[in-house]
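Fold this sequence, please.
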Amino acid sequence: MPMKPEELDLLRRLTLTPGVSGFESPIATEIRSIVEYCADNMRMDNIGNLIAEIGDGEKHLVMAAHMDEIGMAVSNIEKDGTLRIRTVGGVDNRTLIAREVMIYTEKGPVPGVIGIKAPHLTLDPEEAKKVQKYETMRIDIGTRSREETEKLGIKILDPITVKKDFDVMNGKYIISRALDNRVGTYGILRALQILSKKKLDKRISFVWTVQEEIGLRGAFVVSNTMKPDWAIAVDTYTTTDAPDMPTHLVPIVLGKGPVLRILDGRFIAAEHIRKKIEEIAKKSRIPYQKGLTGGTTDASAIQESGSAVIPIGVPMRYTHSPVEVVHADDIDNFVKLLVAVSERLK
């Protein structure tokens, strides 16, 4: 596997650190502690984007990766001590039921479960066929009253994630919740570490953005305040190589290289920047794929600044689920491509 053990440990560390949209402080603190030493300047803007800058030159390149993840927040504490929830970002109700969760309080994380009615007690066979909506779900944290729950430190608005594990299957396939977008977070972090040791002919800003999952909010601030010459939105890209995937889209496969996201629901890459990136990838002998898909990324917000923007993603199966899967080879080539583009883009 191209990723070294210490690189895999770094990705694990980033992935398991919480950072629900709007509550990104834990992951921002973690990133800052890792890379502050190699940045010429590091700061946080008013919305919470974390920005590291290196290099000097007339031209300015921004690499942006959103550090937030989808999740939930406590919306109410019931009299019996259970918690009501509000989803944050594109959470699929199907992925929540019968899951262990973590509630992040000022006193520390508190475990809980979103339970499910046992089949032994389900009288209507049609009930089991329906997807339960999050508005009707409750989190059981092992308490019997609101007062007992509050003594644990739980308050309204505390962020929640489905409990995360981090595993590698068949040597190269990495499984975890929140790989969207801790893979991108990792990618620009590693690019910064590598490029900080080189002489650069341009200024490069590495931006870990906030609130992407609820409407690209951090990226709009980047667009309005930075106005770079070029920008790369670093994210994941949903593959079509899992069972029952659409066949009308160009095939995107794990292990075949990072993806240049040419067109999505809100974005079309400018032809000249796409061609430049493809040329750099070919000259650097870095495998890559080209994709058209739904959804969008920070690129559509940053593009409004007038910058030449392209999203580059790590292929990923099972997006926005507790079992997101990426390939170690793609991550390795992803970092190589970000470094090559940073050095050769003119």
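The first helix runs from residue 5 to 16. The two ends are 33 Å apart (CA to CA).
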